[in-house]
Amino acid sequence: MSTAEELDAIGIDRLRENGSLKWSVFPEAIGAFVAEMDFPAAPAVDAAIRDALDRGLTGYLPAAVRDRMADAVARWQRDRYGWEVPAERIRPVPDVLTALRTTIDFFTTPGSKIVLPTPAYMPFLTIPAMHDREIIEVPMLVDGGRSVYDLDGIDRALADGGGLLILCNPYNPLGRVFERAELEAVSAVVERRGARVFSDEIHAPLVFAPHRHVPYASTGPAAAAHTITAVSASKAWNLPGLKAAQVILTNDADAETWARPEVAWAEHGTANLGVVATTAAFDEGREWLAETLGYLDGNRRVLGELLAAHMPAMGYRAPEGTYIAWLDARALGIEGSPAEFFREHAGVAMTDGLACGPAGEGHLRFILATPRPIIEQAVRQMADALREHAMRSRSV
Ligand SMILES: Cc1ncc(COP(=O)(O)O)c(C=O)c1O
């Protein structure tokens, strides 16, 4: 098992040499823009992948291997969230975005609009157009410093032709973990309008105490009846390249629709190695996750301390879940894109909040799943760049 010291010791050179997407797109910059972890795989996951290779499991996905994953996901949902879902209602898909595309195509009224709380995970803004669907953005509100759903805005959007609400819980990029009462309030609005929900719960294992993940479809019969849930081990155990996620179906009608060959085709392409890795992660990777969450918890706090010390004008509220920090750069006096500024002048590559919709303008997405010394270095470089910028501005 990795200790904090071992994770701290992973250096930038090694990460660059390993060549992940995060560390290869901008070869000169600290990679903090894509939701990848810089940590070694959980030993149980590593062993499961090697074992699958030893057994020559590189053909098509065998039913027994697929079913073991469904059993593991059902156990995880039950043990972690007290949610009982029958394993046969848990279907494999290569990734969560395939689940979204399938939901749009087969579980919504043709031509209906997609209702999207913003700022949003970037592909949520681009995928609907690929299906000839309009988006109605509903910016999140702030209540006591916390982002909350604009229920009236969602209601209006659903009344205005919206057929599907995309929920993201825990919320990328805002880091919220929604409470049961908040989810129940959303469910009441959706149910009143006869709409559907795609509940993206990919970040569910990544929740910091005292917050607790509540599966949206578990909040009541109405939510179960109008929701397609997507889950995955891919964020928490860093497996997105292995292509395995899961759709959880929570009513008979959806299960029947899913069984149609053109719908179940979504399962095709789910990869064996991802399936065995997922099974191992949910069943045997719990201790590793607890330890990793402890480290990430430290990272989200340390980032707050570093910003307070070196860049007090940068707004930050530690995420309740996810390893994504949402930074408010609006008071820094940067003209134009803050992400571009920090990439060029600080050598730190983050996502510009504008990519998450206009509601994200002036913000940055910084990925915290990295060794702590790298966070320290990133903040130092950003603070230096700001100081130089301020000096240049004064001398002009
Ligand atoms: C909220 C959310 N949904 C979906 C994805 C992508 O998942 P997948 O690779 O399974 O499509 C991500 C990746 O960061 C994400 O943050």
| Order of helix and strand elements from N to C terminus | HHEHHEHEHEEEHEHEHEEHHHHEEHEEEH
Q: CATH first level of the largest domain: which class?
A: Alpha Beta
Helix content: 40-55%
Mean pLDDT: 97
Number of strands: 15
With strands numbered from the N-terminus, the spatial order across the biggest sheet is 2-10-9-8-7-3-4
> What quaternary form is this?
single chain
CATH topology of the largest domain: Aspartate Aminotransferase, domain 2
Detail the poorly predicted runs. none
- Could you name the CATH homologous superfamily of the largest domain? Type I PLP-dependent aspartate aminotransferase-like (Major domain)
CATH architecture of the largest domain: 3-Layer(aba) Sandwich
Number of H/I helices: 15
Instruction: Assign an overall shape.
Output: globular
| Content-based structural category | alpha/beta
Bound molecules: pyridoxal-5'-phosphate
Q: How far from one another are the termini?
A: 54 Å
Main beta-sheet annotation: 7 strands, mixed
